[in-house]
Every structure is written in C-alpha cells, then in structure tokens.
Write a structure and sequence with these properties.
single chain, about 550 residues, alpha/beta, six-stranded mixed β-sheet, 16 strands, about 20% strand, globular
C-alpha cells in the first residue's frame, strides 16, 4: 500500500512523470483528431503547455508546495496553446490553488484540489461541452471524492479515480455524436488520462510504460525541418539532468543505466558521485530517459534542446547572414513603435494573408494558425510590442481564442479586446468594421456583430480513412471543410473547392473571396476564380495570394 500523504518532492516527481508520459504519446493523441486533417494538434498543444510548466519545475532551487504550485501554474498558463492546452492549464491552476500553502497533500486535500481544478476549468470555457476533456476531469474528481468519503486511502483513491476516468473517456463518443461517427474518443480527454497515468505510476514508484495497447507508431507528421538537415542528426533531443539518488548508485546500477540510455540514444555521459548523478544523452525519446531516471531518485537541472531545430536555425542563419548584413547597412534600425490610442494584433497563416492584414492596419502579426497554435506567452509578447492604450486581438481560429482570453486576463497595463474571430476571413471582416471614433465597447460589438455573416470553407487533404458527417473519406482525398462540418469530398482540388462554395451560397450572397495557398499556382487559382464568376454572375469574386500551408484554398462567402 502506498503512502497516504504526498510531499513536495513526490508531487514534483508525479507532475514530471505525467508530463513525460503525455510527451511520449503526443503523436498518437494527435491522430485522435475528429477531422482527418494534416494538422491534428491536441497532443502537441497539451505537451507544449505542460512542458512549459515542467521546465519551470525543473529549474526550482527551493522545492516546497508553494514554489512548486507557482511554477506549475505560471508555466502552464503562459505556455498554454490551443483549447486543450488552455483547459489543461486551468485544471493545473485550480489544483495548485488548493495545495500551495500546505506542507503536504493528504487524501482529503487532494480531493478538494481535484474539485477546484474542475471548477476552474469549466469556468474558463464559455460554453462547456460534455464528452470532452472537461467530462473526463469531472469524472476523475467525482470518483476520487466518492472513494475518499468511503474511507479509501490515497492509493485506492488515485487508482480508482483513474480507472473510472478511463471508463468516462470510453463513453465520450456517446456524449458527442461527432466522436462516435469518427470512431475515436476525445483527444483532450485521452491527453489528460496520459498525464494522470504517468503521475499515478510515479506515485507507486513504478517506471512509466509508454507502450499503450492499440497504439500505432506514427511518423510525426508536421515537422518542417528538411530531410537533408535531419539526416545529419540521428537523435534529435539533447537531454541533460541531475539525479539526486535515494541511495548511492553502485557500479552495476551505473552500467545498467548507461546500457539503457545507449538503447535509446548516443553521446551518453553518466557521472555518479555519492548521491548525485549527472546525465547527458542525445535521444529521440527524452520522456523515456527522464522516467527511467525517476526510478533512481529526484531530478533537477533538466534541460531538453531540439538539436534538429537548432541545426535548421543555424543553416538558415548561415545562408542569410550576408544578406542580413547588407540589409542592415542599407536600412536604419527600426524605431520603437510610436504610441497610439488603438492597436491591432492578428494571427496569420501565410505571407500573403499577413500582407492583407498589414494593409488593413494590423500592427503585429503572430505566425500561427491551425498548424501551430500560438501560446498565451506569444500573445503576451505581442501585447508588449504594441504601444497602444487599447489593443484588439484577432485570433482567427477557434482553437486560439482561449489563449487570447488568457492573455487578456494576465494583462493589467493595457485594455485588451479579444474579437472571437474563428477564421481568417472573419478577422479581415472584423478589422474592416473598426471605427476609430467609437469606444472599445462599441467597436467590439460592431466588429463581432458581422462575424456570423461570414461563411468560411477550407480545402485540404485527408491523412487517414474515416467516416464523418455522413461522408466516407479515404486517406489522400481532398476535403472542403465548412464552419461546422465537412461539406465536400473528392479527388480534384478545383472541383472540391467549387462544390464547397456552392454549399456555402444562399440568395443573399454578394462576395466570394478566394485565398490560395503555397501549394497552388496563381494560374490554377485564377482558373477557379473564373469558374466561380461564370457560375455566380451576380456575385463579386476576388482572388488573393494567401500563401498558407496545408490548405490549398481558404474561401469565404458573405
């Protein structure tokens, strides 16, 4: 039977193990995305969120529940990406509020912390949906409370609540029909389960097992590093940490640990000195290395660097160094942004779309969108750069709105107005409706009012077979995705684009805007525009170079 209280050291160990388990399974969680698009990102967003907090935890010099709670809460809030990441950060925020002034966590206290976590997360979401990560978190907290009220000890409470949460996760398709039709459970809920599993195994003193029944290996789609650059680096993550062992590591243990690291990487350095072990390894599985190390003791000074990313950045810097020096000689240094009454921040998904937003008066562009959701920290950095009393943020993606709201809540010295734009065309419409002579409240109302009149379609390809929205979809098919469902499926990009537009049209439609992506030629885009003009002679049709990745076309009808 495990211990009945959790001190700061064990709590930190559980948190880091949960983060590592999530990181190890992020690609699998990404594949649970309902729509079979090439940018399913729940696992990535949750991992980046929790790893932001893990980095702060690992750098703590003084470890107690107060410093640990602050590191977890602050790190996850600022690192939160996407709806799933923001909800995870709110769960962690609520949990840490309860434990931060305590010396240790009892069974009663952890139940209270779980309940506070759920209440905080539900409060952060404007319209909570059941069948999501929220439902799984609530199921865990309710079962924990039930077991504790029956006199169960800590291990029974945690283990029983985890088992029940997995049952709740399995039921999420019954609560959300779209999950049932796609044949998947909720990806955010699965991410939370992986965090809880890792934490519970650490509580038991077990080594986390990352192999999940039914999980398939994935290629990690979405990486932007070139094949040539990656080929030079076999193991991508430089991983370093110090183990404070529970007992001195003898020679046999040291050799066994080195052999384990050699099985998952190279450039191994393991230096043992009494109860301190310094570790360095290059590996593709830093989470596995960390969790193995946790079986020997507590970790500190953790540092994980993506060497492929650093290598790619170096290649880019070296290639452009001469051009940058010439540009610097020709152009004076950019002055600080002058103070203004109103400023604008917009999330952009391509060079062409970025230029459109700049032309409409946007002061600061955040590169992001569906393929990489900006974090709350990215939003805060942008806010710092815009020298204005009132700043309007255009998220332009439903999965970024919560992070923008979180940045708004964390900003005290400027008035932040988040316009809940869910697509790029909505963002363009919103800023066009801004009136400088109106108050912030009046502008928010005017900029938001017309959003429902903008219909958006996005044309991309399927990354797996599925059945959704009464459509059978095969890997490689072209899909037209509307505001609420998949509208069209076929094999021809232009044909699917035209069918998508036809399903968005109604008798009041006056303007069709077509933004073509980086994989579409101007000639092909103009041909699509010409077809639309001939089919809808009463509508104005405009074609723009958007330059967006992943999506061949983004089209809007208004």
């Amino acid at each position: 039977m495990g211990r009945n209280t959790i001190d700061a050291q064990l709590c930190a160990k559980m948190f880091l193990a949960g983060a590592s388990n999530l990181e190890a399974n992020k690609e699998w969680i990404n594949e649970l995305n309902v729509f079979p698009v090439p940018d399913g990102d729940t696992g990535t967003n949750m991992t980046l969120t929790i790893m932001s907090a893990a980095k702060e935890v690992a750098s703590l010099e003084e470890l107690n529940l107060e410093t640990l709670a602050k590191a977890i809460s602050s790190g996850s809030l600022r690192g939160a990406r996407g709806n799933s990441g923001v909800i995870l950060s709110q769960l962690l925020r609520g949990f840490t509020k309860v434990i931060k002034y305590e010396k240790e966590i009892t069974t009663e206290l952890i139940v209270e912390a779980f309940q506070k976590a759920v209440a905080t997360a539900y409060k952060a979401v404007m319209k909570p949906k059941e069948g999501t990560i929220l439902t799984v978190a609530k199921g865990f907290a309710e079962k924990a409370s039930e077991l504790a009220s029956e006199g169960a000890e800590m291990e029974e409470v945690l283990g029983g609540a985890l088992a029940h949460a997995e049952e709740v996760l399995a039921q999420t398709p019954e609560l959300l029909p779209v999950l049932k039709e796609a044949g998947v459970v909720d990806s955010g809920g699965q991410g939370l389960i992986q965090v809880l599993k890792g934490a519970f195994d650490a509580y038991l003193g077990k080594e986390v097992n990352y192999v999940i029944e039914g999980q398939e290996k994935t290629s990690g789609a979405g990486a932007e590093v070139s094949v040539e650059a990656q080929a030079e680096i076999k193991f991508g993550y430089c991983t370093e940490f110090i183990i404070r062992t529970r007992k001195p590591m003898d020679e046999a243990e040291e050799l066994a640990f080195k052999a384990f690291l050699e099985s998952i990487g190279d450039s191994i350095v393991v230096v043992a000195d009494e109860d301190i072990v310094k570790v360095h390894v290059h590996t593709n599985e830093p989470g596995v290395a960390i969790t193995k190390a946790l079986t020997y003791g507590e970790l500190s000074r953790m540092k994980i660097d993506n060497m492929r990313e650093e290598h790619q950045e170096k290649l880019i810097k070296d290639a452009s160094k001469h051009a940058q020096e010439e540009a610097k000689a020709e152009k004076p240094e950019k002055p600080a942004m002058p103070h203004k009454e109103n400023g604008f921040i917009s999330v952009s998904i391509g060079e062409g779309i970025g230029e459109i937003f700049k032309g409409l008066g946007v002061d600061y562009l955040i590169e992001g969108g569906q393929t990489m959701n900006p974090s709350t920290e990215d939003m805060l950095n942008a806010i710092d750069q815009v020298n204005a009393d009132t700043i309007y943020i255009l998220p332009n993606n439903k999965n970024i709105i919560l992070a923008a709201n979180q940045a708004q809540a964390l900003t005290k010295d400027k008035q932040i107005v988040v316009i809940p734009t869910r697509t790029v065309p909505q963002g363009i419409s919103a800023i066009i409706n801004f009136a400088p002579d109106k108050s912030a409240e009046e502008n928010k109302e005017a900029m938001t009012e017309g959003l429902s009149m903008i219909k958006t379609g996005q044309i991309t390809y399927a990354v797996r077979d599925t059945h959704i929205d009464d459509k059978t979809i095969h890997e490689g098919d072209i899909m037209g995705i509307g505001d609420h469902s998949i509208l069209a499926v076929g094999n021809d990009i232009a044909a699917v684009t035209e069918e998508t537009v036809s399903l968005m049209m109604d008798e009041d439609s006056e303007l069709i805007s077509v933004y073509y992506g980086s994989d579409v030629t101007e000639e092909d885009a103009q041909a699509v525009g010409k077809e639309l003009k001939e089919k809808y002679p009463d509508c104005e049709v405009e074609v723009y170079s958007g330059g967006q990745p992943i999506y061949y076309y983004v089209v809007s009808v208004e």
